[in-house]
Amino acid sequence: MDDTLVINEIYLSLQGESTFAGLPCIFVRLTACNLRCSYCDTAYAFTEGQKRSLAEIRQKVNKLAEPFGNNLGQTAGLPISAALDPVPPDRPPENGCPTIHRLPLVELTGGEPLLQKNSLPLMKDLCDDSFTVLLETSGAHDISAVDSRVRRIMDLKCPSSGEVERNRWENLQQLRSTDEIKFVIGTVEDYEWAKQTITEHELQRVCPLLFSWVHPLAPEQQDKSLKKVPAGQTPISRQELAEKIIGDALPVRFQVQMHKIIWSPEQRGV
């Protein structure tokens, strides 16, 4: 098998989303996606990219991680650059102590990483290198073959995405407490759909749930291939979404894309 992946970019930044938000993270952005969500802010990754060997990718990741040193295995107190494992309510820390992870984190994102089969051995290799590995995936592809050490952050596409019919519901049976489900919400209809989906599948018992507000796209991000928001839907503001979560006492984590607050929303490599 050809041991290459088509890579759009590899860079070090802060994790902007998920329960790991705010921690240093190396992003490996893969090229290509078979969905065209209305709010997609990385349309440049649909086609832009270069072939790189798995060895070359690992070398680049390890080079970016060098300044952090080997912050695993320290026993005299917590390492300065240690990350605490976000623990679901039904899974108390072992021996009363949180898990320590090597920093920076490494996340495979896209595009859609699972479109390229060699993303699987790459994630395994990175786990073997003692990295905490995150996978951002659309939820339209089978996640069962992903290494069990990887934290899978899986979308469930809401109606305004234009891709709600692409959700692979069988994936719900594969999720573990260390995974996360993300709902990207841009309309009132999205919110109601997400709330109903959580109730129907009792998702609060499965893993952490994320509600991510749709940040408006800059003009240069509005790729012509993206789906349109279905007619008749009502946009929801960031504040309205937060207030609805509070008012309905939903068991979810509200999140914004932190990197878009720190840097320009359309800036790449952050």
Structural topology:
Elements: E1 4-14, E2 24-30, E3 50-53, H1 54-65, E4 83-84, E5 100-109, H2 119-128, E6 131-137, E7 151-155, E8 180-185, H3 188-201, E9 209-213, H4 238-247, E10 253-255, H5 258-262
Parallel strand pairs: 2-5, 5-6, 6-7, 7-8, 8-9, 9-10
Antiparallel strand pairs: 1-2, 1-3, 4-5
Mean pLDDT across all amino acids: 90
- H/I helix tally: 5
> Which word captures the global form?
globular
> What is the chains' assembly state?
single chain
Tags for this model:
TIM Barrel, 270 residues, ten-stranded mixed β-sheet, 5 helices, alpha/beta, globular
Walk me through this protein's architecture.
- The longest helix has 14 residues, at 188-201.
- Mean pLDDT is 90; it is low at 73-82.
- It is built from five helices and ten strands.
- It has one domain: Aldolase class I (TIM Barrel).
- It has 270 residues and is an alpha/beta fold.
- Strands 1, 2, 3, 4, 5, 6, 7, 8, 9 and 10 form a ten-stranded mixed beta sheet that branches.
- It has helices at 54-65, 119-128, 188-201, 238-247, 258-262, and strands at 4-14, 24-30, 50-53, 83-84, 100-109, 131-137, 151-155, 180-185, 209-213, 253-255.
- Helices cover 19% and strands 22% of the residues.
Describe this structure in a few short sentences.
By secondary structure, the protein is α/β, with parallel strands linked by helices.
